[in-house]
Specification:
about 300 residues; 5-stranded antiparallel sheet; 8 helices; globular
């Protein structure tokens, strides 16, 4: 099922491509949302005014690309569906080819409020290796993660299991036996799970923070630049009705040797570097037995 945040991004990309194609009608347009069924799947999550706003930021984004390219466009490729599919450095959403055979690529981000920009969805058990180049530290973190996760799952039904799969199956079966489709944190029968979740996420936050503090500056900078997509063309847009705006920004490559690592709330670690604060937030995807996600975000400090 489509996620509203992801769908907003896909629609932003698609409408940007559509408006580019209106500007250059002879250009070849390739987008997965040319399929009306796929377009409907994402569009039906939004109110009419929201769709109008996303179309408006698509038009604003297309204008930014036209000004930036400053040439006739002959190919328009909506490639966001593949963003991150072949590695954490592949983050472009739209790629255009000009009449002189040059290419320009753009990473698009949109939300109703962009005080904090969601950058990447990362694996909770692969962040350190893929972003910080810390393979050994990842193995150690994963061992701690599994131990904390087993304690969390055992707290739900007051069990004493050591196998994660068995624990999740027991919780899922328990939910079905009491007439639920799945175990949710909002269900009264599992109200105690909220405190367990808070403790579990806090343990992950603290473990990640202490691990990152042991890494060298090169590893820290590598992760920061990946989260920021440094050196790439960013189009940042807000889709508040009648208050839509979009801007093109290129975040400079971070080379500062000074950074500060802090805790943020109960579930996040931040790294403050130069003029940016980068966050790593642990969260459950949905229900009690859903996967644990790690979201990367950033904001520009005033």
């Amino acid at each position: 099922m489509a996620n509203k945040s992801d769908s907003a991004g896909k629609l932003h990309q698609f409408f940007t491509c559509i408006y580019l194609n209106e500007k250059f009608p002879d250009a070849i347009l390739d987008s997965p949302l040319n399929d009306n069924n796929k377009l409907k799947e994402h569009s039906e999550l939004f109110l009419e005014n929201e769709i109008l706003s996303i179309k408006k930021i698509g038009k604003l984004s297309a204008e930014l690309i036209c000004d930036h390219v400053n040439n006739d466009i002959v190919e328009i490729n909506d490639i966001g569906v593949n963003s991150g599919a072949t590695g954490n450095t592949i983050t472009d959403d739209i790629k255009v080819k000009s009449i002189d055979n040059s290419f320009n690529a753009y990473s698009l981000k949109c939300a109703k409020n962009l005080r904090q920009i969601l950058s990447k969805n990362m694996g909770a058990k692969s962040l350190l290796e893929k972003y910080f180049n810390a393979k050994n530290e990842q193995l150690s973190f994963n061992n701690k993660f599994d131990g904390y996760y087993i304690d969390f799952l055992n707290s739900i039904l007051n069990t004493n299991e050591t196998n994660i799969s068995i624990l999740k199956k027991k919780i899922d079966n328990n939910a079905i036996n009491v007439g639920l489709t799945k175990a949710r944190f909002a269900d009264k029968i599992y109200s105690h799970a909220n405190e367990s979740r808070t403790n579990f996420l806090r343990l992950l936050r603290d473990e990640l923070g202490s691990t990152i503090k042991q890494l060298n500056k090169s590893q820290i900078l590598n992760a920061c630049n990946l989260i920021l997509d440094s050196g790439k063309n960013h189009i940042i847009a807000e889709y508040n009705y009648n208050k839509e705006k979009a801007s093109l920004d290129v975040i400079p490559w971070q080379e500062s040797q000074n950074y500060i690592i802090n805790k943020r709330g109960n579930d996040s670690i931040t790294i403050s570097i130069s003029r940016y604060t980068i966050g790593f937030r642990f969260k459950f995807e949905s229900g009690i037995t859903s996967s644990i996600k790690l979201v990367g975000d950033y904001k520009k400090d005033k």
